[in-house]
Amino acid sequence: xxxxxYMVIDVSxxxxxxxxxxxxxxxxFMNKWLPYADEQPRHGPRWMNIQRKERGQFPxxxxxxxxxxxxxxxxxxxxxxxxxxxxxxxxxxxLIDPVKSxxxxxxxxSCPHGAIYWNEEANIPQKCTFCAHLLDDGxxxxxxxxxxxxxxxxxxxxxxxxxEKIKAEQKLEAYxxxxxxxxxxxxxxxxxxxxxxxxxxxxxxxxxxxxAAVSLKGVAAPGQTTNYFGDFKFDALDSGxxxxxxxxxxxxxxxxxxxxxxxxxxx
Length: 267
Ligand code: SF4
Ligand code: SF4
Ligand code: SF4
Fold this sequence. Notes:
binds iron/sulfur cluster; single chain; 4-stranded antiparallel β-sheet; alpha+beta
């Protein structure tokens, strides 16, 4: 089988520097890479679209970033809806034909991830190409991966079976793939964007308590001991009700549908 192209993005390593977005602009603005893609407009489209989320409440807060290119789905709605203008290559890359797609503005709505942008001037829908023009020219990764200073974006050219092993070893996940579109973009540490944390601090007589044993009742996650500041943090939690246990006693019960700073728990 032809080697497949996959992108893997580690959410915990992305700092929203936007190098990937700028590299994509640099590669595709004022450059026509026909027949792969026409040039990308200067403003508007974000073929690499970095989504942002803030979790928690001050001062126990964090920010996380989810870089989102076209997911190059195996069962792509854009291919299904516009079979004459969108192709899925043997290596997994999904490409919109820049000539045949002229005037097909409805294609923008066919992508559940919002990855297709309308180029008003050229009168065509456009999206990330996985920089197929570079890969076909011998590059082993696209411009965005090449430009990422933290190594958050990695690119693989491997057999499908080999990638399945990588997926399992690195605990990679697809983003919002309940419908089984089987993307070729996977995420590591996706919990940073999709799940919640419960954080707080333990006090005694107004002082931080270091080394207090904290756990969540009925949750498999290992217990923690509070740090120098008396703080604890349980992450990767689903929405639900949790009881915080401190030094063996139930201390507080909370119901969450987002990350929560519970404040201080007085012993
Ligand atoms: S270049 Fe890397 S670290 Fe910077 S925004 Fe893109 S993915 Fe994140
Ligand atoms: S992410 Fe959207 S544009 Fe990309 S292949 Fe899937 S459906 Fe098509
Ligand atoms: S793979 Fe190429 S086209 Fe896609 S987001 Fe990265 S730089 Fe842009």
